[in-house]
Amino acid sequence: MKTVHKTWILIPIGILCWALLGFYLSISVVFIGTTSLLASICALIFVKLSLIKNFNTIISAIEVFKQGNRSARISDQRLAELTPISSAINDLLDKTENEESRLNESRLRYKSLVEMMADGLVTVNKEGSIQSMNSAAGKLLGFADGELVGVNISAIITDPKSVYAEDYLNGFIDDTTGAAPNQEIEVISTSGEVIPILFAVSKMEIQKQLLYIGVLSDISKIKSMEMELRSLNDELSRTNERLEKTVITDSLTLLFNRRHFDSVLIKELQRATRQRTSISLLIVDIDFFKQFNDVYGHTAGDDCLKKVSRCIKQVFKRSGDLPARYGGEEFAIILPGCDGLELQERAETLRQEIVELGVPHSESNTEKILTVSIGAITYKPNTNDVAGPKPKDLFSEADKALYRAKAKGRNQVVFAGQYQPLAIPTMTTQMYGQFISR
User: Fold this and answer.
1) Please, is 181 exposed, middle or buried when counting C-beta atoms within 10 Å of its C-beta (0-12, 13-18, 19+)?
2) Do residues 220 and 141 touch, judged by C-beta distance below 8 A?
């Protein structure tokens, strides 16, 4: 402005000096011409200075608007010659104010929605620096609002690959579809607690800056429930196993029961026939057990059955062996792949083990200790056999061998040899078997 004032002072002085000079020189034409030129130049300078002042007024209003005063407008009445320009600028300022107001409203709405989210939300740049986070993320991790801003994301994620932020975050995004499926990761809270979460990542470019947006969903309760359900399921499985075992186990001797024995015998006979392998069957009966109960009582009788069962378990413990309590004092044992001399040796081993128990039996007509009689039979299919024998037929043959062992004086093993189809036992044979079993 000082320059403008100096100019206004110098112009009249210059014109006066030029007029005096022209008077003395008496060159009227030159004087008039140059005076006119000088006057034109002065007029132009005046107009320019006036425009500059008007434009300064406009610029000043815009600067006030930029500094935050949204009510600033161009209203100087002296700008009549620039009214179209000032009106256009005022319209532009009005539109800018309205657009800014709309953007602020959208920003507030977005912020409210982000803060209302139950899940945590963080934005991370490609270097891994956290740019923003909502309250849910802070609450999840135990940090105050904004406390993690500027912190590298690798500081809160347990995966060591998170140090390489861009590669790590891109790994959550499907390159083909651009989808961001949830993946389980673990984060570290301010207390050092490791929290399982579902992490979904997407990316966008804002003001030419690549940002990753991560959504963190706390699944610690779900994981806890999963563990509890897994524990309950394991317990249920164990309970089912115990129930299944109870269903197929004799409660006194803990050997398999008759029902399970019959079921397995059918399957093993079918398998032996199909694979052309041998299968043997032993029937074990405690000698004079009724007399034992009469003399020593049923409690001692139960204890006697348990001791015999333990011996049977000890002798027949190979894979595939199936010892069972068939009823009362009678036991049955399925022996797949066992026949001939091996079968006789194992049966004799059991008989001897029972003898070595040394359980007193004063009413025994064989020995004064507990003994057993054993009947054995083997089935080995021929190449032409299509179907194996019926279980009851094989059992009947082993039972006949047991009767012969009793008839021969008990405390011994009788081997019936290879199974061959026989006629149905007569009534006389049945009565004989019942008689010698007493």
Assistant:
1) exposed
2) no
Q: pLDDT tens per residue, the chain (438 residues)?
A: 444 445 556 666 666 665 665 555 555 555 566 666 666 676 666 555 555 666 666 777 677 767 777 677 666 555 555 667 767 777 777 787 777 777 777 666 656 665 667 688 888 998 989 988 888 888 888 888 778 888 898 888 989 888 898 888 888 887 666 566 788 888 888 888 888 988 888 888 877 888 998 888 888 888 888 888 899 999 999 988 888 888 999 999 999 999 999 999 999 999 998 899 999 999 999 999 999 999 999 999 999 999 999 999 999 999 999 999 999 999 999 999 999 899 999 999 999 999 999 999 998 888 899 999 999 999 988 866 666 788 999 999 999 999 999 999 999 999 988 876 544 444 544 554 454 344
The CA angle 177-113-219, to the nearest 5 degrees, is: 65
Strands 194-206, 183-188: pairing is antiparallel
Query: Using CA of residue 335, residue 339, residue 342, residue 344, what is the dihedral sign?
Result: positive
DSSP annotation of 407: H
Cβ of 319: how many Cβ atoms within 10 Å? Answer: 6
Q: Which CATH superfamily is domain 249-436 in?
A: Reverse transcriptase/Diguanylate cyclase domain (3.30.70.270)
Provide the annotated active-site residues.
329
DSSP state of 124: E
Cα 319 to Cα 313: distance, rounded to the nearest angstrom? 12
Exposed e or buried b for every residue in 108-124, given b needs 16+ CB within 10 A? eeeeeeeeeeebbbbbb
- 161 token code pair: 């690959």
Q: Where are the domains of the chain?
A: 2-108, 118-222, 249-436
Alpha helix segments (H runs only) across 67-190: 83-116, 135-141, 165-170
Cα 380 from Cα 417, distance rounded (Å): 10
Q: Which fold has domain 118-222?
A: Beta-Lactamase (3.30.450)
